[in-house]
Amino acid sequence: MHCQVPARRVFVFSHPRTACHVVFQLLSTHPAFRVVTPFYCAAANEISSGLEAQAPRSEQDWLDLLGMSDGDASKITLQGSIDGLQREVAEAEVNGKCALTMDHPSFVMALSQLQAHLGIRGCDVKPTPVVVDRMLDVVGGTAYSQLDAGITPEAPYPNPTLLPDRFFFSFTPIITIRHPARIMASVLRALQRLGDDISHPDFAVHGESLRPVRLVFDSFKSYEEACAVAEGRKAKIPIVIDGDKLVRNPQGQMKKLCTLIDIDESQLKYSWDPPRLVEHTKTGRGYLNEFNRSTGIFSNPRAKEVNMAEEVRYWREEWDEDIARILEEKVAAQMEDYEYLLRFSL
Description:
Protein name: Sulfotransferase
Helix content: 40-55%
Mean pLDDT: 80
Distance between the termini: 30 Å
Strand order of the largest sheet: 2-3-1-4-5
Organism: Marasmius oreades (fairy-ring Marasmius)
Shape: globular
Largest sheet: 5 strands, parallel
CATH architecture: 3-Layer(aba) Sandwich
CATH class: Alpha Beta
InterPro entries: P-loop_NTPase
Low-confidence stretches: 1-6, 50-56
């Protein structure tokens, strides 16, 4: 049995509005890492897989949000995106760096999976894309080429994504979560900035389920347990970062994280020039407006725990009774997955 080698690759499996960009930015300041384009597969997913059914947007609306023309979009495929991701990982490693990338699991999952786990309605199921592992990340016969797909977890914990098994399990995963009340309200404000009709009963589908990141967690956990049994060692738990804990104590959280991935936390930078990652797109302005203006992260030990009664009252004041009720229902639906993952958080 060939299991995962000591990882020099880190993949932040993010969830919207969990401070994932802050985690990624902090790690990217470490000299051990070379950043591999985050959200490499997002455009291919949104344009070609039918994910636009999550919101009442036309194809042109999606192109406008992504800042693309029809010609640009026609060149994007999931296979090409994964090939590009593998090439950038290889380039990082050729230059002696640890590859660091990030994506929402929902951007690398088949639509049928999203429909099953996110409750997407009113759209046809498209065929699951066939992705070939071209092994473009393998340089000079590295151990990553030896990962044996035969040991990957069986149901109910298989690799939930369209990333090839060998490539998927070659990464050390970092999974980001946050209290659903924080997530949902933040998603709603982002949708407002994008001009969406938030009175729609199915608003914010993309942000209303932590199930995709839980599927990733369970798959890596099962894989690591199988490797540990084969190698006669104790299994490691996949890393989970809670955005609320990070806000309250960023340096403490990052010290724990750096210990787990074997890098020196003192080499992180907690302040930076404004990242301005994707400010030129409508999506970037809608979701990353505050982050793109940020110059660092600072501890806020007074950040309060979530009190649902207070949150609902704030939502009624900010929006109205109906929206507050919908938010409360969506938060309640996420709590099982959130509390499950929170048990394993740093």
